[in-house]
Amino acid sequence: MSLPKRIIRETERLISDPVPGITAVPHSDNLRYFDVTIQGPESSPYENGKFKLELFLPDEYPMVAPKVRFLTKIYHPNIDRLGRICLDVLKNNWSPALQIRTILLSIQALLSSPNPDDPLANEVAEEWKNNNVHAIATAKEWTEKYAN
Amino acid sequence: MSDVEGDDPEEEEYDESFEDSYAEDSEFEYEDEEYLDEDNMEKVEVEYTYPTSETKMGTLTHRMKYEPVDVEDVQRSLEEKVKQLDTILQIGTDECRILLMRYNWNDDKLLEDFTNESLDKFFEGSGLSKNSKPVGGWDLIEQKTDESFECHICFSSPSKDQPLAVFRLGNCDHPFCIRCYVKYIQEANANSRLLIPCPEADCGLIIRLSELQQLSDYGWKERERAREEKRKETEKQSRVPLTEEEIRQKYQRDQIEAELSEFSDLEIGEGETGENEEEKKVKVEPKNKADDTDEDPEAKLFNFQERILVQEREERERRRNQTLLSKYWFNVASKYCSKHCKSFKNCPFPDCDSLIMQQGFDSNVVATLEEFTKRQLIPTVQCSHKHEFCYSCLKGDHSPCPCSIAEKWEKKCKDDTETAHWITANTKDCPECSMPIEKNGGCNHMQCRNCNYEFCWVCLKDWACHNNSYFNCTKYVEDIGEAKTAQEKSRKSLERYLFYFRLFDNQRSSLSKDRELLEQFEGKIQEMQKKSSVSWIETLFYRESVDVLLQARRELMWSYAIMYYIDPKCPKQLVEGVQCTLSHQVEKLSRLFADTEVNAVLQQKAKFLNYSNTVKKSRDLLRETYLDCIANGVVKLTRK
Ligand SMILES: [Zn+2]
Ligand SMILES: [Zn+2]
Ligand SMILES: [Zn+2]
Ligand SMILES: [Zn+2]
Ligand SMILES: [Zn+2]
Ligand SMILES: [Zn+2]
Ligand SMILES: [Zn+2]
What total of structural domains would you count in chain B? Predict the structure, then answer.
């Protein structure tokens, strides 16, 4: 199946006008599959970390959201052990006017401001709420250990 | 999460808090009841599955209660509610509709919030615009020529010679190309969303019905245009050779079509499997007056109005379940049903959008569908478009055959098609003069054109011996002697199977042949109606007889399937007797159809009514007899 104009344009623009701290490169044998890296935001427990993600554009894209998953282990209340992300724009609030770029920016923003009240990883969220200092320390530890 | 979806957590919250107060306050309960009642809704009578609560022999039966729901009825009743709300709020029906959906049609809670919250907050939270402009005089569709414009969904832009058709909502400035908008709504419809926001991520405005209407109409028109183009194309193609001018035109058309084909792909649903011959709708043709000189003006006006009504109905019929809007209303109706009953299903017939709400059972022992079908009862329901189907297995009606048997039988037939193939041939030789005879109607009472011998298609014996109740050829003479070898056993089993399969298959092909014949006939009747002053009502008896015939053939067909599964040692004379009677009466009615000329139909009215009444009675008796025999253990269904 040929690639829709939208995906071609989006890919071109991601390369010609990259987002600071984010890279997204399509596989040469499957242009719907992207290798993504996100730099941990400054003054967050993920600072200095480099997180790998995978992103896939389903056939129905952009009518349905892209599928995104963390490949690097991360300690975050909205990201579970399998790297799945709880983010409204990836689910009910997806709009076809959003793009790969905006989604990756939202994920970056999620690293800056975790939302333990809408958790995906329950234990992490509990820790985050009840023992915040310890939780943040763990997040830093994991970043150093895995995200390099 | 600020969801806009119909069944989002936010909404459930409304429901919960509502239920809390419901438990505390009995007065509230009453109001809720009234609300659930939808007092505007023309109350649909609850219907029951057949048979009556007791058979003629006194066996107690259990019935399923159900309510056929027509999407248009739901629409009417909700629109009534929308209007009522608007007389209070005065913010426009489009806006009221969105609010009602947002509040799950709980207008008490809606009014409470409306009076308590600040208006700005209330509007914004509901996805409405404060300064809403009604959709009307101006179009939401625009042909964009500005080359700097880019659709945020497909990234297309207009070019110098190719403008881009875009659509936008009345209250925001977020245009997208129409094609993307249509796809977007389709996706939302597929996810049963009732509150569909503007596709722009940060906008949050909910699409209003009149906006959806414009989009839907546009999509429909494009689709029809693409169809028409295609039709013309095939017409042109059949006429060769082409002139140079024609080739040039064809090339242009091809281009247009390539453009439009995307639309037709978009709009044409998967429903068009062409399998709905079963219940082809009786189309009402407007009367054509040969000369209207001596017609009084009132009649003329009446005819005109009638024609308009007919056209409207046909248009509705065509659009049913086909457009963005009709699919949207189907979702609304489903949501409505899910609020009003525990279980509902939609009619399995192609392109039918009717729903059936199951309302429990008329029984003090049967409480679930599973228990119901376990008793070999069949939950046959009829949708508001008169399609009959089984509520449990969603196949076309298979009474009097229980679901489990029908399923087994279908599987067996599928597995044994090779073995049984030879039976389905449509020609047989006349048993008297050996002239090949083709069967072209459903009637099994044959007459050879060569020697005038009258015989039975099923057993090839003289028809005269079938003219009384000793109609013997549908009875299988059981060979109950112990089968000695495995080979003998399997031969016996195959013989028995083939015997009933042959009867089943014969009814099946008679059914389709009768249907064919009657469809041709229907066309002739319509012609006759046009020429003479015969009204549609006057020929209604004929159509009802058609239904009776086809339905009786279907039931007879399934009754042979049960016979195969009856324990050979059981006394089955009783059911066989009823079966024979029905079979003979069906042939009589079928013959009447075949023998009646179009212009003699009205003279034969009494005969049609008489014959079909007899068939109806025997058909009911057949169902009840099976029930009685199974309930009393006279027959046992055993075979694997
Ligand atoms: Zn577009
Ligand atoms: Zn908008
Ligand atoms: Zn139906
Ligand atoms: Zn069934
Ligand atoms: Zn003959
Ligand atoms: Zn006959
Ligand atoms: Zn016979």
Answer: 5
Query: pLDDT of B432-456, one tens digit each?
Result: 877 767 766 667 788 887 788 888 8
Distance CA B448, CA B442 (A): 16
Between the alpha carbon of residue B336 and those of residues B67, B127, B181, B359, B432, the distances in Å are: 13, 21, 26, 14, 64
| Same domain (yes/no): B125, B145 | no
| Residue B554 in tokens | 């279907």
How many whole angstroms separate alpha carbon A103 and alpha carbon B609?
Answer: 69
The secondary structure of B327-342 as a DSSP string is HHHHHHHHHHHHHH-S
Contact between B156 and B185 (Cβ < 8 Å): no
Chain A contact for B152 (CB, 8 A cutoff):
yes
Q: Which of B391, B395, B427 is nearest to B411 (CA)?
A: B395
- The answer to the question of residue B325 being in a domain is no
* Prediction pTM value: 0.72
> What 8-state DSSP symbol labels residue B204?
-
ipTM, two decimals, is 0.87
Same domain assignment for residues B178 and B149: yes
List CB contacts (< 8 A) between B193 and chain A. Answer: none
Residue B429, SS3 per DSSP: strand
* Cis geometry, peptide bond prior to residue B402 (ω within 30 degrees of 0): no
The answer to whether residue B328 is domain-embedded is no
Determine the distance in angstroms separating the CA of B11 from the nearest CA of chain A, rounded to an integer. Answer: 14
H or E element that contains A7: helix A5-16
Kindly report, residue by residue over B29-73, the tens digit of the pLDDT: 333 333 444 444 455 678 888 888 788 778 888 899 999 999 998
Give CA angle at B349 (B347, B355), nearest 5°: 15
Q: B461 CB contacts (<8 Å, ≥6 apart)?
A: B431, B455, B473
Domain tally, chain A = 1
Do A39 and A50 contact (CB within 8 A), yes or no?
yes
User: What backbone torsions phi and psi does residue B167 show, to the nearest 5 degrees?
Assistant: -125, 145
Nearest CA in chain A to B188: A63
Chain Cα centroid distance, residue A13: 19
Ramachandran angles phi, psi of B447, nearest 5°: -135, 125
Token look-up 């109905």 returns B313
In this structure, what are the phi and psi dihedrals at residue B134, rounded to the nearest 5 degrees? -70, 145
Give the range of the structural domain holding residue B432, as residue numbers without chain letter. Answer: 414-472
Residue B317 Cα distances to A123, B6, B284, B519, angstroms? 55, 28, 12, 19
B187 in A contact zone (CB under 8 Å) = yes
> B28 and B119: one domain?
yes
Angstroms from A69 CA to nearest CA on chain B: 20
B215 interfacial to chain A (CB closer than 8 Å): no
Cis peptide before B51 (omega within 30 of 0): yes
Residues B519 and B622 placed together within one structural domain of the fold: yes
Locate B7 and state its tokens.
Answer: 């069944």
B616 and B515 both lie in a single domain: yes
The C-alpha atoms of residue B463 and residue B454 are separated, in whole angstroms, by 6
Query: Is residue B278 predicted with pLDDT exceeding 50?
Result: no
CA atoms of B599 and B587, how far apart (whole Å):
22
Size of interface A-B (CB pairs under 8 A): 47
Token digits of residue B83: 């209007």
